[in-house]
């Protein structure tokens, strides 16, 4: 009885792995042809564009609306920094000067954070540019077939 159980488990694992290998080969061939036909974006180029000009990396990746939002956010923060700097220069008391200096420093930190976030976003968007978002998840019949084999061997182990 122990030998039968061992043989059943062994053949069950071999059968399950053989189905997985057949599906992997056909999927890899299909994927390689599809990957060849899809356009590619360079993530480093997108990141460097995002550093050079606000929103350029997002524009390069085809995310036009996001590029406009990033440009507006960074331009607004830069404008606030310039405004705070002008207030520092025009301040008359030491208290006002320290207040506007602190606001300018805070605005600079916000700008650094916005630039870093837009760089990361452009880099990740370029990596995911050719990601397949279609609702088709693959060969449904093959996944059903391997599930049936697992249930069959589980039933034999219980005996």
Compile the SSE list and pairings:
Elements: H1 2-37, H2 43-52, H3 56-60, H4 64-90, H5 94-127, H6 140-158
Helix pairs in contact: 1-6, 2-5, 4-5
Structural description of this entry:
- By secondary structure, the chain is an all-alpha fold.
- The protein has 2 domains: 1-38 and 144-159; 41-129.
- Helix content is 82%, strand content 0%.
- The protein contains 6 helices and no strands.
- The protein has helices spanning 2-37, 43-52, 56-60, 64-90, 94-127, 140-158.
- The longest helix is centred in the N-terminal third of the chain and has 36 residues, at 2-37.
- The radius of gyration is 29 Å and the shape is rod-shaped.
- The chain starts with a helix and ends with a helix.
- Mean pLDDT is 77; it is low at 13-26.
Q: Gist?
A:
The chain has six helices and no strands. It is mainly α.
Helical element count?
Answer: 6
Major beta sheet summary = none
Question: What share of residues are in beta strands?
Answer: under 5%
N-to-C terminal Cα separation, in Å? 10 Å
Shape: rod-shaped
Low-confidence spans: pLDDT under 50, at least 5 residues?
A: 13-26
Percentage of residues assigned to helices: over 70%
Number of domains: 2
- Following the backbone from N to C, one meets helices and strands in this order, namely HHHHHH
Summed over residues and divided by their number, the pLDDT gives a mean of 77
Number of strands: 0
Structural class: mainly alpha
Our Rg estimate from Cα atoms comes to 29 Å
């Amino acid at each position: 009885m122990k030998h039968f159980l061992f043989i059943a488990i062994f053949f069950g694992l071999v059968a399950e792995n053989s189905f997985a290998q057949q599906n992997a080969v056909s999927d890899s061939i299909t994927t390689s042809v599809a990957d060849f036909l899809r356009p590619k974006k360079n993530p480093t180029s997108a990141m460097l564009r995002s550093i050079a000009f606000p929103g350029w990396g997002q524009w390069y990746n085809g995310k036009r609306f996001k590029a406009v939002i990033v440009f507006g956010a960074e331009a607004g923060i830069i404008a606030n920094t310039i405004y705070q700097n002008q207030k520092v220069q025009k301040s008359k008391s030491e208290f006002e000067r320290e207040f506007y200096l602190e606001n300018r420093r805070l605005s600079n930190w916000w700008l650094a954070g916005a630039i870093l976030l837009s760089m990361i976003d452009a880099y990740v968007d370029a990596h995911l540019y050719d990601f397949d978002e279609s609702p088709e998840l693959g060969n449904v019949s093959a996944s059903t077939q391997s599930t049936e084999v697992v249930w069959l061997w589980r039933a034999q182990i219980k005996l």
